[in-house]
Amino acid sequence: MKILRRVVIAVLIQLVCSLSLAAENAVKENTVTVNISKIESPEGQIILCIYDSSDNYDKRIAFQEFKITPEISNVTFETQLPDGEYLVMLVQDINYNGKLDTSFIGMPKEPVGLSNYDGKGIPGKFKKHKFSVTEDMTVSIPLKTF
Q: For residues 44 and 95, is the Cβ–Cβ distance under 8 A?
């Protein structure tokens, strides 16, 4: 009986320690709401890509990617993100080919949007368009047609 009691106590101690470590390693998630505005057509799909680093943005390796049905004027979308720095890129893929169509000089043929981009000039790199997430927040991005 003494041995059984010791085994049960040891198992309970291990279980409590494991649960405590798991709680410490849990990642805090924040609700990030993306307001997409200036949608001029309900055609195609909006591809929303969230990048979590400069390297991944340059290589177009999204941390999260979603396909959203466009509506005229505005769409609101929510996702969960841990604390960190992110960039959101939008493409309204009118022809459903899964990519941004561009002209021979690289100008977008489909509506696009980027976090922290005013639509003037050539967009910059990750550092210029990133935003920090440390709590629930809203990011507003208008689509722009060139």
A: yes
Q: What is the pLDDT of residues 120-145, one digit of tens each?
A: 888 899 999 999 999 999 999 999 98
In a domain, 115, yes or no: yes
Residues forming a β-bridge with 142: 37
> Per residue in 17-61, pLDDT tens?
566 555 555 778 999 999 999 999 999 999 999 999 999 999 999
User: Does residue 104 sit in helix, strand or coil?
Assistant: coil
Q: What's the chain's Rg over C-alpha atoms? A: 22
DSSP secondary structure, 130-143, as one string: -EEESSSEEEEEE-
Would residue 70 count as lying in a domain? yes
Q: Is the dihedral of CA 94, 125, 128, 61 positive or negative?
A: positive
**Sole residue written with tokens 């604390």:** 83
Domain count, the chain: 1
Burial 74-96, CB ≥16 within 10 A → b, else e? ebebebebeeeebbbbbbbbeee
Pairing of the two strands 29-39 and 137-142: parallel
